[in-house]
Amino acid sequence: EGYNSLNFIEQIVADDLKEGISQKSLRFRFPPEPNGYLHIGHAASICLNFGLGEDNQAPVNLRFDDTNPIKEEQEFVDSIKNDIEWLGFKWAKECYTSDYFQQLYDWAIQLIKDGKAYVDGQSAALMAEQKGTPTTPGKASPYRDTPVEENLRLFEEMKDGKHAEGTYVLRAKIDMASPNMLMRDPLMYRILNKPHHRTGSEWCIYPMYDWAHGQSDYVEQVSHSICTLEFKPHRELYDWFLDQIIDPDKLRPKQREFARRNLSYTVMSKRKLLELVQSKTVAGWDDPRMPTISGLRRRGYTPESIRKFSEVSGITKRDSVTDVSLLEYCIREDLNKNATRVMGVLDPVKLILGNYPADKTEMLIAENNPEIENSGSHEVPFSKELYIEREDFKEEANSKYFRLTLGKEVRLKNAYIIKGESVEKDVNGRITAIHCSVDLDSRSGSGTEASMRKVKGTLHWVSIEHAVKAEIREYDRLFLDEAPDSHEEKGFMEFINPDSLNIVKEAYVEPFLQSASIDDKFQFQRVGYFTLDKDSKADHLVFNKTVGLKDSWAK
Ligand code: ATP
Ligand code: MG
Ligand code: MG
Questions:
Q1: Residue 80 C-alpha to ligand 1 middle, in angstroms?
Q2: In Å, what is the CA distance from 546 to each residue of 5, 378, 388?
Q3: Which of 128, 265, 418, 507 is most buried (CB neighbours < 10 A)?
Q4: pLDDT of the residue at 306
């Protein structure tokens, strides 16, 4: 990688190396809160942090930021680990902020003793009111000058469960007139009588993010603590807390910020994704319409496509929205190179070859992937009665129509050239069967003169006798609005697309697909890319449509 291809965070690290920080002291972390599943926004942070680790041969910790027992669960811890591994990254150490609860408590005692922290017994509303506004100084709490001994006693009582939730908090004593509101005596601890998914009921006071995060970075000796832009005003507090406890012989972590990744036509915060799950708007965190890593995986996305998306959408200093069609472009490119080519008919109409023997089955050869050399091939059975797509036939059409019509020839993929002869219809005029003749000398790959004949159209098909019935799930955007959570008058739930899922109950696919495994990826020729869903059973195949062959958005 050339110098110029570094993003600005990579550049900060490169500059630090130039200015003398040793390569050996580089260390990074990815710090999810286990309060939901990871989404495509997190992938930006994962690729950035683990990418920095790879480029600098430096360790990257996975740190669970588990300071809020109300929202955190083991299920989320497990899914997060699974998703990061699936993306192809390995963490050096699995860490938990909760592992530092005792250390954080000890440091808090030290701050109290140094006169830098105090217990406040006022209501949250009153404390908020005293904070003032950015342009007017705040008012000191009457607890601000409580003697150290009294603070120590109250804080211990808080820890020992002697006080109810909401009665007392521990605050840092900084500056009630600071232009940075976060510096106006921020909270360090609150009382929560909630069991924690790791520490059980050992603690009933829990550290606030600002108090826990920087100190955790310090404990782990993280050199660069990279977070998103909304934490920029927190940097001053991050540094203040470090100043209170730092040993000058140890590495001092530094916080740097980059812009969150947003994606059009979706919401990205875990709280909102949880709402979609809990309201049953989607089938779960891994619903293929979700922007979660697990949803994208189930939809048919590959780790490579998500990493590629992270690379091309870049790391920026200002908030922006990436078009979801870029994500789709990344998976389409990947699947075009790697997906096995098969045939499936989603809206079948019967086609009968008049001059083909009724009792004959031919096994034709289908190349697995023309994009890959020596990708091999598989067999496709061919017989007298086939299904083709209903939309691939018109009784009459102009000369620009290259599909099947009466009196004109098309090729059946990997098979023969056929010609439309007549149709059968039901009482409503709907076509029930198309009768064709077949040029028996024209089989693809047979080397005959007839097989080389050029005809304009090529159609996909399946043999009725051999085809396997399958369920196909097609997806559209989950939201009708480009930025569903940007409206002041309306909540994001009001922009849900009611037609985001379309289930095709009776599609027919070639029998080769019966041996597919969950997550296998295919190009259904002329239709799109599909992956076998986890709901599949041996006698009931279910495919998710990952993405169409072309950018349907631009059309
Ligand atoms: P959410 O609102 O989705 O819960 P969060 O920031 O609270 O987001 P965390 O679990 O704390 O979620 O995130 C872990 C890491 O991933 C943090 O460093 C965070 O800054 C980063 N991150 C989260 N969302 C995005 C995003 N959309 N783009 C880039 N990085 C993100
Ligand atoms: Mg967070
Ligand atoms: Mg959050």
A1: 12
A2: 31, 23, 22
A3: 418
A4: 98
**Catalytic site residue 260?**
yes
State how far the Cα of 460 lies from the Cα of 342, in Å rounded to an integer: 9
Of the CA atoms within 13 Å of residue 356, those in its CB half-sphere come to 26
270-340+470-554: CATH topology is Ribosomal Protein L25; Chain P (2.40.240)
As a whole number of angstroms, the distance between CA 71 and CA 423 comes to 62
Ligand 1 surroundings by CB, under 6 angstroms: 31-33, 41-42, 44-45, 65, 227-228, 260-261, 268-270
pLDDT value of position 4 = 57
Residue 173 is a catalytic residue: no
pLDDT tens digits, 210-224: 999 999 999 999 999
Nearest CA to ligand 1 atom 4: 270
Distance (Å, rounded) from C-alpha 67 to C-alpha 98?
A: 7
Is domain 348-460 given the CATH code 2.40.240.10 in the classification? yes
Averaged pLDDT score across all residues of the chain: 96
Say if residue 314 is exposed, middle or buried (CB neighbours under 10 Å; 0-12, 13-18, 19+): middle
pLDDT at 415: 98
C-alpha distances (whole Å) from 404 to each of 399, 429, 444 are 11, 18, 18
Residue reference for tokens 């739930």: 493
Average pLDDT of 180-197? 97
CATH 3.40.50.970 fits 3-258, yes or no: no
Instruction: Write down the pLDDT at residue 552.
Output: 58
Q: Of all residues in the chain, what percent carry a pLDDT higher than 70?
A: 99
Which residue blocks in 88-176 are alpha helix, DSSP H? 101-113, 124-130, 148-159
Domain ranges in the chain with CATH number 2.40.240.10: 270-340+470-554, 348-460
The Cα–Cα gap between 33 and 508 comes to 44
- CB proximity list for 332: less than 8 A, separation 6 or greater: 529, 547, 548, 549, 551
d(CA 307, CA 50): 11
* Digit-coded pLDDT (tens) for 519-536: 999 999 999 999 999 999
Is the pLDDT at 553 greater than 60? The verdict is no
Phi-psi region of 372 (alpha: psi -120 to 50; beta: other; left: phi over 0): beta
Distance of CA 230 from the midpoint of ligand 1 (Å) = 10
Which of 63, 159, 270, 384 is catalytic? The answer is 270
Active site residue 403: no
In a mutational test of the pocket of ligand 1, which residue from 38, 45, 73 has the highest number of ligand atoms less than 8 Å from its CB?
A: 45
User: Do residues 320 and 260 make contact, with C-beta atoms less than 8 angstroms apart?
Assistant: no
Quick check: pTM over 0.90?
yes
Residues 6+ apart with CB under 8 A from 400: none
pLDDT tens sequence across 283-327: 999 999 999 999 999 999 999 999 999 999 999 999 889 999 999
pLDDT at 5: 84
Q: CA separation (Å) from 189 to 109, 167, 325?
A: 12, 12, 44
Is residue 3 over pLDDT 80? no
- Give residue 330's pLDDT band: very low, low, confident or very high (50, 70, 90): very high
